[in-house]
Amino acid sequence: MKDLFSVDIQFLKGVGPKRAQLYQKLGVDSVGSLLQYYPRSYIDLHDTVPLSAAPFDSPCAVQGRVVRKLPVARLSGGRTLYKVLCTNYEQDFAVTFFNTPYPYGQLVEGEDYIFYGKFGGTFTGRQVGSPLFIPAGQPHDVLPVYPLTKGLTSKEISRSVAVAIDAFLAQLADPLPSWVRTQYDLCHIGFAVQNIHLPQSPQAAQLARRRLIFEELLVLQLGMALLKQRTRRRTDYRLIPPDLAPFTAALPYQLTGAQRRCIGEILTDLQRPQPMSRLLQGDVGSGKTVVAAAGVYAAAQNGAQSALMAPTEILAEQHYQTLNTLLQPLGITVALLTGSTKGAAKKALLADLAAGKIDLLVGTHALISQNVTFSKLALVVTDEQHRFGVKQRGALGEKGQYPHMLVMSATPIPRTLALIIYGDLDISVLDEKPAGRREIETFAVDFGKFRRAVAFAEKQIRAGGQVYVVCPLIEDSGSELKDAATAQQQIQQLLPHRRVGLLHGRMRPKEKEAVMAAFKQKQLDLLVSTTVIEVGVDVPDANLIIVQNAERFGLSALHQLRGRVGRSDRQSYCILISDAQGETAKKRLDAMCRTSDGFALANFDLELRGPGDFFGSAQHGLPKLKIADLLQDRMVLAQTGTVCRQLLDADPQLRQNPLLRAEVGRLFSQVGQQGLN
Ligand SMILES: Nc1ncnc2c1ncn2[C@@H]1O[C@H](COP(=O)(O)OP(=O)(O)OP(=O)(O)O)[C@@H](O)[C@H]1O
């Protein structure tokens, strides 16, 4: 469809500059992108009902003959009424349009049509306003319904699409090689485009859909594979593996088998001439940080620098503390750069960095700002990559000569999907928790038990533990939801002798850091917080987490929250407080009580909510798909994966498949990856 993407939509008959602006809002700027603007659903006009059976309050299809078109009536307020009298032989009905002469003009007296709309009015005088209609007996009796923007109706889009198909269908070249179509029984692009928009039958629409889904997933996988190839350039930092003995000897614990295996995989990558691109996937609390630290150690032993980017300041600060404690005794200089590093301190830090005096720079996305220059950046680690995505990952990578990249994620995703979502990465999995960890006991209770939960907290604190209380809101908003500030006061009243802290996202970074540090150093017994503590916070002595209004959190958030405890060999507990009666909420809380396996919970979440939230492209920085769904269409993914490999083996840069290559470029331009060379 290459050329059609350069044909401006405004020059399509019936569109013009004003409508073109509306189309822009839908992301449609060319004839090519219009043809890829697929319907959301279809109205099947096969199913007509007799008028007497048509409901008054929901739309349906009724067949009828136009008896008489009444003269145009001018109404008050400048409105115009176009009214047509029809019959379906047992009863008459009226069809009306306000201010829209076009459909009125299309109806012909004496002809039969199928009308689709809401048949209101009275029992004796049924009336349908602005219905969709087609001549009875027309082969296209399935009408597309498009996602709309204000000012553009589904019918208008359908009309523009029909014009585009009439004018350009013959010019459509198929991006899929013919052997792929034959082998996988896929229809030609021309048939697909025509039948996704104007299906001759529901079966034809199905064939079209399948083919377009196949093409889109293939293009996605090709793009990911090309990105991966790009990272397979030569790096300036082919490292010599260091002796890890001093590193492991300095640790306060033994590495788990999984940690050793993952460190091994990373060190092997670091020796290769191509830069590493690796995802380190591990459930909450599995000990990812120390694995990353081993990579940093290896780089530093080779005289090269590392960077670690965290999604929040709290996490950046925490990583800084952990890594500094771990690495500084080994002679490695660690520094922290966040949005709150300012003035002279920042200037000095940046100068040291550029002079190669800093071995590891930890920070937030401040690391990718322009004035940050490394002298020899060999390893880039990003934490919780779903908050960054493909684009930012690339930006940090550009600060060195193809440095090695390690991405840490706690999001449990089935391997087959991880391969797609992180298609540009190799994967290491930490599938073992540190020794001595016990199952976190989880209870779901109602608000009536709040005082008992606080009494239980007191018991844990007395035994040397620490407690989180998580609330969905910061301050009392007048709703019945528990807010953090009120909860802090209540708990302080119930436990006057305990030190109760408050942490929320609206506090200044310095204040947040101070509270977090106080909690870590056990100057606070109990921390009431909003979800700022959701990701990654590590306070090993914390062994109880109480979540208020637990129904307000999704399963993955609850799992992340619970992961804040159970990070030592202390028995840990999670109390989920909720009065919600809803089925889904109850099922979620039940699942939390049943298992603490992140993968099992993720699968259950998918069943409950559908894939939308979990695999939303916004989270992963993947391009937005137009027709395919990564979860529902995962069977197709297996096929496109095979084709992707076959195509690239024969033609690594897709030079012989320029149409496919152009499709890849277009899909990935959304995530800032134009030059997929
Ligand atoms: N092999 C080990 N033995 C004992 N404790 C360990 C081991 N590895 C890591 N830990 C400790 O376990 C805790 C969790 O480690 P870490 O913070 O790296 O987890 P994580 O994988 O980043 O988890 P999350 O995704 O929840 O942040 C830390 O307190 C860390 O010191």
From TrEMBL:
Keyword DNA damage: yes
Pfam families in the cross-refs: DEAD, Helicase_C, RecG_dom3_C, RecG_wedge
SUPFAM superfamilies according to UniProt: Nucleic acid-binding proteins, P-loop containing nucleoside triphosphate hydrolases
Residue ranges of every copy of the Helicase C-terminal domain listed in the record: 449-607
GO MF term (any one): ATP binding
Enzyme nomenclature, EC number: 5.6.2.4
Classification via CDD domains: DEXHc_RecG
InterPro entries for the chain: ATP-dep_DNA_helicase_RecG, DEAD/DEAH_box_helicase_dom, Helicase_ATP-bd, Helicase_C-like, NA-bd_OB-fold, P-loop_NTPase, RecG/Mfd, RecG_dom3_C
Domain (Helicase ATP-binding) ranges: 269-430
Keywords: ATP-binding, DNA damage, DNA recombination, DNA repair, DNA-binding, Helicase, Hydrolase, Isomerase, Nucleotide-binding
Keyword Flavoprotein: no
Reactions catalysed: Couples ATP hydrolysis with the unwinding of duplex DNA by translocating in the 3'-5' direction; ATP + H2O = ADP + phosphate + H(+)
NCBIfam families, sorted: PRK10917.1-3, PRK10917.2-2, recG
Role of this protein: Plays a critical role in recombination and DNA repair. Helps process Holliday junction intermediates to mature products by catalyzing branch migration. Has replication fork regression activity, unwinds stalled or blocked replication forks to make a HJ that can be resolved. Has a DNA unwinding activity characteristic of a DNA helicase with 3'-5' polarity.
Similarity comment: Belongs to the helicase family. RecG subfamily.
UniProt name for this protein: ATP-dependent DNA helicase RecG
Organism: Neobittarella massiliensis (ex Bilen et al. 2018)
